[in-house]
């Protein structure tokens, strides 16, 4: 649905903050920002754990208090009212006081825990009173999970006593190999060269295997077809059993990081691989992951890098630990953006709270020994750039990108995801207000042009991260002029099954782009996805969201072909107007891919197009 031309001639208003707090009259550009802000006005002491030292105000997050202090008090010469009564680092409540019962109830695959529904009814009613005059846009209540973590934290050893099953040695060994071959390339936060299987926490092992066995069969059952999916589901449920009692952040950064990594893997497994009813569980895990990462202080860079030791191997391991933390948080940020882009679920991770540097070059990360790592560090240099600084550099009126140090394609993905989310926000904001903000549209367009050299690597570079970053960039170039109707209509989707079915329905009932000029501008980006799908050689590792991007691109191409647009799918040998051949081609290129469940839904949707 092309709407850009309808708004270009409309003069942008001075005030572009349609969401106003009914208590303090502060304006916001996004409803989720208002919702996050409004929690400071609630009287519940459990939700305002970060009081200001200079005034009576209190905040739900430490970074919000820090921003308030810098803005209101640092230049005022005021004296603090007194020492804080609570620490702002390790304090966080966890989900209801039923962590133990959650561990036992999680064995039921179709049962959605009570924490998915609103368990803070009175507080939600107060929140609704604050927001009732602000917006009517439908969205998930992202406050439901913000402060739901209470109960004692139990160690891994106590968790082991609560479960009776664990994978065998052969299942674990084979699962690790599958994980690093098929999964790790698109979520590269576990450092394989220093990976020690004897030190891996049980919950992390189970989480790794839940994804790994989506790509292979169970060796203990003669690798029979379908046994891998069964083992994956069993590992998924047992990982939730282990993680159930681990509600609070510990004083051990490595343990806390392993919990966040497990929650990240499990939500991917639930939403992108198992799908269906498990998606609700996946979103609960996502909320828990974000809350846990904040409580553990993982949004901030670690202080593990040592300057005193002269042992090269120790320095290498410290580098791996620090880089693993950085990559984990950036991957969590990327996944948070994906749920917003595909399902229109409000984001939980704000860009300013990501304080980490962009990932180091892949050559340093993949070094197989301490000596090789040290040599590559010397050759490539040690210059770093923070994620926030990189985003600002690309959004600047005259981007000085030549001054940016080299970084891994993993970092380019996060920058591309930021721009894709920004395009979505711009489309929703414009539809809601009836105005097109050229002040936001033009910088976003120019920043995409500046980013292109970073994502469009040489033809010989076909690593998973390079392809993923380029795919995100290509999709942003499509979504900037072609706005997704479900998002602009305020529709929040509950699973990837629903997303695929809804996207297919839109393709048969509405026009994505009604203007030939718009169709011409997006044609090269549509063709990139078509050629990618048509490649005879399947990539060893392929992120599931790339398949979703490609399906969206195909739907636009199919609609253009159905309208008789010349050369709509000529790039893959489909003649103009030949719907039957287009669907036969799509059935072949999608049918040979994984994950299995997503592919099954896509093939079903292609059948609906044929009808």
TrEMBL record:
Record bears the keyword Transcription regulation: no
PANTHER family for the chain: MIP31509P (PTHR40626), ZINC FINGER PROTEIN YPR022C (PTHR40626:SF11)
Residues covered by the C2H2-type domain: 19-46, 50-80
Organism name: Zasmidium cellare ATCC 36951
UniProt entry keywords in alphabetical sequence: Metal-binding, Nucleus, Repeat, Zinc, Zinc-finger
Transmembrane segments: none
Xref: SUPFAM superfamilies: beta-beta-alpha zinc fingers (SSF57667)
Region named Disordered: 69-124
Pfam families recorded: Fungal_trans, zf-C2H2
Subcellular location: Nucleus
Major localization listed first in the record, in broad terms: nucleus
GO cellular component terms listed in the entry, alphabetical order: chromatin; nucleus
GO molecular function ontology, one term from the record: DNA-binding transcription factor activity, RNA polymerase II-specific
Keyword Repeat: yes
Biased composition (Low complexity): 100-110
Protein's GO biological process: DNA-templated transcription
Name the UniProt record assigns to this protein: C2H2-type domain-containing protein
Signal peptide: none
InterPro entries per UniProt: VerF-like, XnlR_reg_dom, Znf_C2H2_sf, Znf_C2H2_type
